[in-house]
């Protein structure tokens, strides 16, 4: 729950209340604490820089760039 409108709509709020779901307070526009988001952003940047021209090429470039990601890079994202 990050205070996005889809999470705070009346329908969602009612469902959460009716189903007794406890929701933690969360500041709006807080930084994402999920390191995979940073990894996806980096992958997207690298693939975009190579300018794929079709779906097949996009798929191959994604695989190529993903293979270049070293486990220590992932560890740095988790630690950061």
UniProtKB/TrEMBL annotation:
Report the GO molecular function annotations.
nucleic acid binding
List the Pfam families. DDE_3 (PF13358)
Tell me the superkingdom of the source: Eukaryota
Q: Tc1-like transposase DDE domain: which residues? A: 1-58
Q: What InterPro entries does the entry give?
A: RNaseH_sf, Tc1-like_DDE_dom
What name does UniProt use for this protein?
Tc1-like transposase DDE domain-containing protein
Q: Which organism is it from?
A: Oncorhynchus tshawytscha
């Amino acid at each position: 729950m990050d205070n996005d409108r889809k999470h705070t709509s009346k329908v969602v709020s009612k469902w959460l209340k009716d189903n007794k779901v406890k929701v933690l307070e969360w500041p709006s526009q807080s930084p994402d604490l999920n390191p995979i988001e940073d990894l996806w952003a980096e992958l997207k940047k690298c693939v975009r820089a190579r300018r794929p021209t079709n779906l097949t090429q996009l798929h191959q470039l994604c695989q190529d760039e993903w293979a270049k990601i070293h486990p220590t890079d992932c560890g740095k994202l988790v630690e950061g």
